């Protein structure tokens, strides 16, 4: 810290402690930087090269894995959050990549625009959701990075590079989903649509019925998601379509959804840490009392896409070819039934169209994401590893690709086999980051392997 140039000293902190959202991973970077210009980012990268340090850029810290960790230099670009250009005619917005999605929605709304699709929350940074190919749901909608039309990245040598399908196209293709290992992305342009209202209906259904009428159910609306309640044969189907109907005014019942669905549920899950055999009855109770009630809402798209993800959790989520999903779900049901595992609800089932983002888990194939969860009531630990092993065995055997943000057991060679563009990605990675500045344990384990970079 003492030896830093004054302009870097002004934006650096030591003793920073980083914990991810779920409080499952953390690190103590030697220096933590909060730049507000691309030039400052570039200076930090040059300093890291000179001092033989690694860098990790962190967004909002929501990834449930060690993806964003480093004990060397951590950069947060949350101060790089300005709107740079709005083109309503073309439906394109350019923003600095540290902007969070909540802010982006407001900026878009003020300009009569909206993202076409979205995941469950909007707390993440724009760069963060893209870096892991985060997704929403809808069989005709690709992963979120399909929205990117151009971007700017500060490479591992400090060079500031503009990329688009016609300018540095290989870097553009790789950097749409970069896992933070190509450089620091500082700006992005996104293709958006005119703002719209969504009408969402949530209805109870039988799990068997969903599996038997798979194609009809998953294509029954523009955006469909299914929550299955393990240990029961029940599920909930959420369907959302664009609408011109008026916004609904009813407020969801505080007693049902906040008191019972959140507080009582968390309290009950905490007791179940000592008596896991209670879990199936808890699932039945909360399904009957809270989740089986049909709901209907019309509101701004981004409000309807987002959900309350309750409390900290362990999660695992893989993408498998869409047509293999019913088999995967039946096999997951079978191993839960035939073992002594007691698992939390829901199993979340979402859909993504095939896309062309090199490292997107939906690259080249229509995809079903199946997510499993074990909540950590009051942040306390619960057993999950046996569940994850059995789940991953099923997903692996069906050609699954793990969500990059979530901790998973795939090796570099598994991933190389699974992604046709993996070696092209590595070529760009070597070109942009020849010293391995952006390599951390996760990137070494899953992407670059044991290859010795100058500094590793
Ligand atoms: C409650 C919850 C709900 C979620 N819901 C969904 C969902 O519905 N769908 C889904 O697909 N995922 C979901 N996720 C996962 C989440 O979208 C990803 O973990 C996402 O990457 C988090 O964004 P972040 O800004 O927090 O990034 P971080 O977790 O901080 O970082 C993620 C990666 O992005 C890289 N990165 C960040 N900024 C930059 C930058 N400027 N340049 C280059 N690389 C950068 C980091 O180095 C790291 O590799 C959810 C996670 C949580 C905790």
From TrEMBL:
Its cofactor is FAD. It holds the Pfam family FAD_binding_4. GO terms for cellular component: mitochondrial membrane. It catalyses: D-arabinono-1,4-lactone + O2 = dehydro-D-arabinono-1,4-lactone + H2O2 + H(+). Keywords: Ascorbate biosynthesis, FAD, Flavoprotein, Membrane, Mitochondrion, Oxidoreductase. It comes from the Eukaryota. One of its GO terms (biological process) is L-ascorbic acid biosynthetic process. It is an enzyme of class 1 (oxidoreductase). Pathway: Cofactor biosynthesis; D-erythroascorbate biosynthesis; dehydro-D-arabinono-1,4-lactone from D-arabinose: step 2/2; Cofactor biosynthesis; L-ascorbate biosynthesis. Its EC number is 1.1.3.37. GO terms for molecular function: D-arabinono-1,4-lactone oxidase activity; FAD binding. It is found in: Membrane; Mitochondrion membrane. Residues 25-195 form the FAD-binding PCMH-type domain. NCBIfam families: bact_FAD_ox (TIGR01679), FAD_lactone_ox (TIGR01678). Belongs to the oxygen-dependent FAD-linked oxidoreductase family. This is D-arabinono-1,4-lactone oxidase. It comes from Umbelopsis ramanniana AG. The lineage of its organism: Eukaryota, Fungi, Fungi incertae sedis, Mucoromycota, Mucoromycotina.
